[in-house]
């Protein structure tokens, strides 16, 4: 008996503009989003291998007490200037031309994983937020409790999300307005002076036992006439960086993940290590490099301070320019970034 050919289709949000010429939409194979062209299902036997193999940096990691510094206070929430503020892990407060975004808000502990460092302000103080941007639905990026808190304190909030994320958003709020997009699609519920696009990442989705790759993943482009900001989301190293650069040109500000990369056999298709992040940034012809996805939660084998040390060594060797490593809660003014 011959094997059946995989059931393949391409989808997007038909109401939105797709800006990449000839792009048919996100590929779905047997009702799962593909990772570009190929279906990717992480091998969870690697988790067992990870637990049994031991960490060669166990002693170094145990003695590494590094946590990102924190600038306490909520002045950035009420300031008028355009800025980027890291709130830990992959959570960012961004104000662009008076419009305020909160990306991947994780404001509390994760299930079974406590925050290693706090927020600069209470979650309830995050007000005057216009949009929440959700890159994907892993629990360290889409947290229902955090989304409910932000929604409760921002009555005019809207959400920009990936394809098929709507049911999760509805579980946080039945009435929260949202818009889903596929890769290379432009959201149309934002002010005319801004362009927001959902762009590719090399990753996967799973929250439960039976939802493998049922929600899309990706990154964001926030574009004005003056600057282009790129938020990479969670991603491994793949050819999408070349495609994003070809589509959007040099990216003035690159917010790049640099943590949760060891052991390599388990993490390399999902996350970037610092060297890969810098390689991607150079492909993107980036200006300012802002790291994320490190220091806030213990998710992997590398010592807590290793991502920062490696980035500083790479910068000192002249292999990148524009490195900014902000404290949590420290405003980076857009007028100072290129």
From TrEMBL:
This is MBL fold metallo-hydrolase. Pfam families: Lactamase_B_2 (PF12706). SUPFAM superfamilies: Metallo-hydrolase/oxidoreductase (SSF56281). PANTHER family: N-ACYL-PHOSPHATIDYLETHANOLAMINE-HYDROLYZING PHOSPHOLIPASE D (PTHR15032:SF4). Residues 100-294 form the Metallo-beta-lactamase domain.
């Amino acid at each position: 008996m011959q094997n059946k050919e995989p059931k393949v289709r391409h989808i997007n949000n038909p109401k939105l503009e797709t800006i990449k010429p000839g792009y048919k939409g996100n590929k779905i194979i047997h009702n799962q989003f593909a990772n570009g062209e190929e279906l990717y299902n992480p091998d969870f036997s690697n988790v067992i291998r990870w637990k049994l193999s031991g960490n060669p940096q166990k002693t170094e990691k145990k003695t590494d007490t590094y946590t990102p510094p924190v600038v306490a206070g909520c002045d950035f929430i009420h300031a008028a200037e355009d800025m980027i503020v890291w709130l830990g892990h992959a959570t960012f407060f961004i104000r662009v031309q008076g419009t305020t975004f909160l990306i991947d808000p994780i404001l509390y502990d994760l299930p079974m994983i406590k925050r290693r460092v706090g927020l600069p302000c209470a979650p309830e103080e995050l007000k005057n937020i216009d949009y929440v941007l959700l890159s994907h639905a892993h629990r360290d990026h889409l947290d229902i409790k955090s989304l409910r808190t932000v929604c409760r304190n921002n009555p005019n909030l809207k959400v920009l999300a990936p394809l098929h994320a709507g049911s999760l958003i509805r579980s946080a709020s039945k009435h929260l307005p949202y818009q889903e997009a596929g890769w290379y699609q432009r959201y149309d519920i934002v002010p005319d002076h801004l362009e927001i696009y959902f762009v590719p990442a090399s990753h996967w989705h799973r929250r439960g036992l039976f939802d493998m790759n049922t929600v899309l993943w990706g990154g964001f482009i926030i574009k004005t006439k003056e600057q282009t900001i790129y938020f990479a989301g969670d991603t491994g190293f793949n050819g999408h960086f070349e495609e994003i650069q070809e589509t959007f040109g040099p990216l003035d500000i690159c917010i790049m993940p640099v943590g949760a990369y060891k052991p390599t056999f388990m993490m390399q298709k999902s996350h970037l290590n610092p060297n890969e992040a810098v390689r991607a940034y150079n492909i993107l012809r980036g200006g300012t490099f802002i790291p994320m996805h490190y220091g806030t939660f213990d998710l992997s084998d590398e010592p807590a301070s290793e991502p920062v040390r490696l980035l500083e060594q790479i910068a000192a060797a002249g292999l990148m320019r524009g490195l900014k490593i902000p404290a949590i809660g420290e405003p980076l003014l857009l007028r100072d970034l290129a």
